[in-house]
Design the sequence.
């Protein structure tokens, strides 16, 4: 499912106008992004899951084109999603 299909699904479930549903989807995504850019930002949706940022340490890796060459991979931040128990149960048909 892509973003336009998500908007269409919201329209079908709620009966709101497509323009309004698209605004809500965009606002939701934007709010999550803005919260995660804050230091210690986290979005927890009980029963669905948690969006947060995790720190990745600097490390060394291998160049895939030249497997003998070691390259430095700098430290970075990565957005992660951890599914909640209710969401996991629904996916597993429980």
Sequence:
């Amino acid at each position: 499912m892509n973003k336009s299909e998500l908007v269409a699904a919201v329209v079908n479930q709620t009966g709101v106008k497509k323009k309004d549903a698209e605004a809500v989807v965009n606002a939701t995504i934007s709010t999550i992004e803005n919260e995660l850019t804050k230091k210690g930002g986290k979005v927890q949706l009980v029963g669905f899951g948690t969006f947060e940022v995790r720190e990745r340490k600097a490390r060394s890796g291998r160049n895939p084109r030249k497997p003998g060459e070691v390259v430095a991979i700098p430290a970075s931040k990565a957005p992660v999603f951890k599914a909640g128990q209710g969401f996991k149960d629904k996916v597993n048909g429980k």
